[in-house]
TrEMBL record:
Its EC number is 1.2.4.-. Transmembrane segments: none annotated. This is Alpha-ketoacid dehydrogenase subunit beta. GO terms for molecular function: oxidoreductase activity.
Length: 326
């Protein structure tokens, strides 16, 4: 079985290439995705190899890009749309939540819209305003959308394949600060389900649940805690909507404690839904309340201050200590 080590961004590029090769109905659209290869070079070389009718440089108009993708999907295509940065998605929010998410239900199941919207998201790269947002909860709240986020190169490759093959619209959040993290990718492996969480580190004392950019941080926290004799389990959620509550429950029933970590603000974040649902399901197993670690309820700060805003190792370990103290 062929296994290659590649960066997360390269894994997405290879996945998009495979989709273009295997399905003539797949098209890629977005600002600067063609000749430039995207600002993060995720689509580098694809227009050169597949032509301007398959990899399409669009005007700077997110609402028009998504609206056009909806029209293409209605005609049988499988568009993959890139939103250049997370904060640029909001001009297209109306198209996404009122058209893309609702068409299947509105047509009583007769219309499918297999559209993937790629969104580089999160902070940690020293960017300017509107370039470091984490808006995943806004989309997870909308019925009719699937919302996923890989944390490693292998998942980036296979989850993109599965998202493109899905007949439902998928919001694909790419953790931009992890674009250059390398990992092993097998392009022949049989992947697990798109929306299945995965235990990436076994533990017995407490569960750390995260997705996207925070999974690596949780592994670092587990390493640090192990030096003090604490055994932390790390659960990569992978999918935010639908969310694999069964896997979270199974882990919590084993460890009896849960800390949820995400970059987005804690207030009304995805961790709130997880905390509420797991409290309902695991009330008699929990030995401490479910704790959350995330961003603050403020606009994303200037780059010089983002390290103070973003969850770091100390904040995760503090939550671990507070949980274990009950």
């Amino acid at each position: 079985m062929a296994v290659e080590k590649m960066a997360l961004a390269k894994a997405i590029n290879e996945s998009l290439r495979r989709a273009l090769e295997t399905d003539p109905k797949v098209v890629i659209m977005g600002e600067d995705v063609g000749k430039l290869g995207g600002v993060f070079r995720v689509t580098d070389g694809l227009q050169k190899d597949f032509g301007e009718s398959r990899v399409i440089d669009t005007p700077l108009a997110e609402s028009g890009i998504v609206g056009t993708a909806i029209g293409l999907a209605l005609r049988g295509y499988r568009p993959v749309v890139e939103i250049q940065f997370d904060g640029f998605v909001f001009p297209a929010y109306d198209q996404i939540v009122t058209q893309l998410a609702k068409m299947h239900a509105r047509s009583l199941g007769t219309v499918k819209l297999p559209v993937v919207i790629r969104i580089p998201y999160g902070g940690g790269i020293g960017a300017v305003e509107h370039h470091s947002e984490s808006p995943e909860s806004l989309f997870a709240h909308v019925a009719g959308l699937k919302v996923v986020s890989p944390s490693n190169a292998s998942d980036a490759y296979w989850m993109m394949q599965q998202a493109i093959q899905s007949d439902d619209p998928v919001i694909f959040f790419e953790p931009k600060r992890r674009y250059w993290d390398k990992g092993e990718v097998s392009t022949e492996a049989i992947p697990g389900p798109l929306h299945k969480a995965r235990v990436t580190r076994e533990g017995t004392d407490l569960t750390l649940a995260a997705y996207g950019p925070m999974v690596k941080l949780c592994h670092e926290a587990a390493d640090a805690a192990a030096e003090e004799g604490k055994s932390l389990e790390v659960l990569d959620l992978r999918s935010i909507s639908p969310l694999d509550f069964d896997s979270v429950q199974a882990s919590v029933e084993k460890t009896r404690r849960l800390v949820v970590v995400h970059e987005a603000p804690v207030f009304f974040g995805s961790g709130a839904e997880i905390a509420a649902r797991i409290t309902e399901r695991c009330f008699y197993h929990l030995e401490a309340p479910v704790l959350r670690v995330g961003g603050y309820h403020v606009p994303y700060p200037p780059a010089r201050l983002e390290e103070e805003y973003l969850p770091g190792l100390d904040r995760v370990l503090d939550a671990v200590d507070r949980s274990l103290a009950y």
